[in-house]
Amino acid sequence: xxxxxxxxxxxxxxxxxxxxxxxxxxxxxxxxxxxxxxxxxxxxxxxxxxxxxxxxxxxxx
Length: 61
Hints:
Elements: H1 2-10, H2 17-39, H3 42-49
């Protein structure tokens, strides 16, 4: 099964760019997330972390 898929993929022109593009998207996303985590304000992180514990906005159905 894998040989069939590999042989089929090798016959497509220009397919070698897709793994490179997906690696770049993966790297850019996680590098951006890493940068955001280290530059986020501590007050914002603390405020957002308290949202699940906040009972003021709780609605009863």
